[in-house]
Amino acid sequence: MAAAYPPNGTFFDTLKKSFVDVPVESGKDNAVPTTEFLEAAESLTTLFDVLGSMAFNPVKNDMLGNVKKIRDRQLAAPTLSETLQDLVLNELKEKKHTATEGLLWLVRGLDFTAQALRANLNNSSEELSASFRSAYSNTLKPHHSFLIKPIFSAAMGATPYRKDFYAKLGADQDKVQAALVPWLEALEKDVTVLKEFLARKEAKW
């Protein structure tokens, strides 16, 4: 996997868009730009390829399907969708909620990923399977049907060993950590902002 990276590079060098590069406008009620966010979310899904198991395909495809729902709305009404918050509020005004529901599920998926990686970073002895299982229980599992839960649970058990995963992110572990930490912090910030927004009355349908 690491052979595809630039010399001395890491997985994070291959991302088309990093969450570090998604500006959150604090002066405009933490507005999140739609285009940059969707590109960063798409880029994040390549992390599931690094995890290296076909069992993660449903997780990846679910997230990409939700990205498409949001982008379809953005393309249909670009001037009303420059930020995710505007996209949601303007879609709901039209008595529609396809993209809004897609964003809700996408944020849950991103929250799952962020919580798993944060737990694993904070506990250097914890295997990925434990981190991902715990994150799944906290984020997606309460919202999944009994048909979906086994599919996602299978993915949690298919994670590589911790040492193998970090090695796949790059040969130089200092560089991996230096890239992973700010990316994860930026992802967590976006997730926090969007969870707070989606919990508001005006974002419900």
TrEMBL record:
<dbReference type="GO" id="GO:1902388">
    <property type="term" value="F:ceramide 1-phosphate transfer activity"/>
</dbReference>
<dbReference type="Pfam" id="PF08718">
    <property type="entry name" value="GLTP"/>
</dbReference>
<dbReference type="GO" id="GO:1902387">
    <property type="term" value="F:ceramide 1-phosphate binding"/>
</dbReference>
<dbReference type="InterPro" id="IPR014830">
    <property type="entry name" value="Glycolipid_transfer_prot_dom"/>
</dbReference>
<feature type="domain" description="Glycolipid transfer protein">
    <location>
        <begin position="32"/>
        <end position="170"/>
    </location>
</feature>
<protein>
    <submittedName>
        <fullName>Glycolipid transfer protein</fullName>
    </submittedName>
</protein>
<dbReference type="InterPro" id="IPR036497">
    <property type="entry name" value="GLTP_sf"/>
</dbReference>
<keyword id="KW-0813">Transport</keyword>
<dbReference type="GO" id="GO:0005829">
    <property type="term" value="C:cytosol"/>
</dbReference>
<dbReference type="GO" id="GO:0016020">
    <property type="term" value="C:membrane"/>
</dbReference>
